[in-house]
Amino acid sequence: SPGPKPVSGRQPLVVLAYDTALLVKSVTCRWTNPDGRVSTTPLQQQGDWSWHGSFEPGTPGRWKCDLVATDVTGAEWKRQQQFQVETGQTAKPKVGGDFPWVLSGTPPRRLAAGPTAPLRPLWVTHTGSVHVLHNSPVTAGGRVFVSVGNPNAGTPGAGVLCLDAATGKRLWRTDSPRGDIRGPVSVHDGVVYAILAEGWIAAFDAGTGQVKWTRPLNASYRDGRPLAIINTPPVPTAKGLLVNDWQKPLWLVDYTTGKTIRRLAGDVGAYAAFATVFDDVLYSVRRGGGTAVRFPGGEPVWTITETSRSTSAPIVVDGKLIYTGSSGIRVRDAATGKLLWQKGLSGAGYQNAAPVVWDDLILANGGDMRLLDLKTGATRHTVPCGREADRFRRSRRQALAGSSTPIIAGDLAFFGHDDTSIRGVTRNGEVAWEHRLGTPIKTSPVITGNLLLVHDYAGNLWCFAGQSGDR
């Protein structure tokens, strides 16, 4: 930040500086304006390789930026970049409705309206997260809530962060009461809920961050964590809070006390899938199989065999159970589990984006973004990702895939990608807006009003503002 065509006025400045072998100890940023005058912007390190400041151009035209990064040996790394500053201003923030958990909306992740292109950075803050995979933000009451994760063993810093959605101002931050937090939080009736990576559940007051209660999913977790880390969000339902242990079982717990209401059959596997509830049926799919049971009674409905190594959380739209996996996308009859159609997708890996439905289309992120026919699976449009050679000169990435679940708002669908871009696309697959963050985006973006929020791999939480919001 700023993007390639910033506007006048104060805006966030973000520089990413890293080396595969040496630590960077300082970064300087010098600007030359269209009249030839030179100024320097102070930068502060935020996280492992992010450096933050602000940019406030007063003159439209061509601005030149000279960056110098100095590593711990004293060696300097230089880069020059130019920006065309345009007349105009970043849209003022207009906070809209709540998006209190990752599959909010009807159908999931579908909103009637949202920001329109172009979007520009409004604020950026570093959350304290490291190597962000699943820590997607959610919103409620004009606030942004995001889990803070750190997968490095023995390293402190995990917790829950609450910010003002319009300004990015920190309102509170509370440390995790029991280890890392890998999955998104969920908000329900003024309480923030999190599944802690070590097999505990925690509830925080949404207004103050005070811990209201904690409990282990298994009594043995008081002495040590489960075999693997839990990456999933709590699922708010009308009957209570649905949570999962590593793989199985599933638990329905009381919102107020955390006490168990019912133990339920279901297995979410070893990766990042989680169970979902639609029309009083609980669905879970993972490597090896899937089940549907009545909710909350637990009476069996059907079981299936599933061959994908990993899967996404399943959604149900128009009587169809839809999920992605490492071998592609599956669409089944929600009432019987019968396979209706399937389609291979490239680059899904084991961090699978959940599909979302846009009227007669399914959006499936992967190596590319595919817009598929809901009825037949035929590819209507493809949004190519990661094609440009210059992306590979300067971008910290693990792989080239799309694990970011899209969100649809009005006439645009927004999604992140490992190729470092956040995009807004139309139903015809046309890219209406794109912003490169310089680091992979594995989390799922969220929208409130005219604001788009996304948490990148480096731990930066970005807020972009568009020209309109909720109508």
Describe this structure in words.
By secondary structure, the chain is mainly β. It has two domains: 11-85, Immunoglobulins (Immunoglobulin-like), CATH 2.60.40.10; 110-465, Methylamine Dehydrogenase, Chain H (7 Propeller). The chain is 0% helix and 44% strand. The chain has strands spanning 11-16, 24-32, 38-41, 44-46, 50-55, 61-71, 76-85, 110-111, 120-126, 138-140, 143-148, 159-164, 170-175, 186-188, 191-196, 200-205, 211-216, 235-237, 240-244, 250-253, 260-264, 276-278, 281-286, 289-294, 300-304, 315-317, 320-325, 328-333, 339-343, 356-358, 361-365, 369-373, 379-383, 407-409, 412-416, 421-425, 431-436, 446-448, 451-455, 460-465. Strand 15 and strand 16 form a beta hairpin. The two termini are 29 Å apart. The mean pLDDT is 91.
